[in-house]
Amino acid sequence: MGFSILLKYALSLNGMSAIRYFSCLMTVVFTLLFCSCNAQNDDNNASEDKGKEIESAPEAILFIGNSHTYYNQGLATHLLEFRKNDGSELEPVIQEVAKGGYSLEDHLNDPSSLSKINERNWDYVIFQENTSVAAEALESTTDAMIVLADMVAQNDTEILLFMTWPYKERPEMLNGIKKTYESGAKAINATIVPVGEDWTAIDTETEIDVKFYDADGVHATLEGTFYASAKFYKAIYGKTPSQNPYTAGLPTSIANYLKSKAE
User: Fold this and answer.
1) What are the two backbone dihedrals, phi and then psi, of residue 158, each rounded to the nearest 5 degrees?
2) How far is CA 61 from CA 34, 76, 135, 204, 239, in A?
């Protein structure tokens, strides 16, 4: 029944019946109006809150690897500094779970690594395999990548692969490393960040005095870690590293050179 019909019916009644009916009718009307207004306000507030959440939601990035990931304060630290220096109003969460000598298979068998992976919904997760394991191009690496990828698949997480460099005295390792990461990328539809691809060429560059290898011939110097973080800054954010003022404390000329090479 429409409201006008209900009102006519109320007026047709006599005495207390009409008063009681009209009173009940008005109560129903005001209740409906109140609920409608509240629902509209809730929808508006929900839309506003959702908008604020989207605007202020921090970027969540996790590196999974070993000493190549955590050396020189770690890629997570330097990538965070790149992000802080590009004018973004967001406060990203960039962390790592990295232990010396670890392979990706080791992380799968470590409860603390699994706990970190499941800690939140990560926007990006970066896999870094043990270099000697990667050089052997074993199926175990691809198998581990598949399991790890399945763990974050429900979160629409984008996966990147941190291709590392060969040992300084064993440049032939690069062939196996490339094969491993290419196989893994194909298996889990991931993007390779080929840090080690031009490593040797830049390390021996005569244009400017840059050395990527630490004294042990295995790990990176600060220059090498900085270069890697610049590559990830480009890969994740699509921004030009040379336009970012961050230098990690390196001489400006060297930092600028490495950022340009990372592009």
Assistant:
1) -90, 130
2) 45, 8, 26, 32, 16
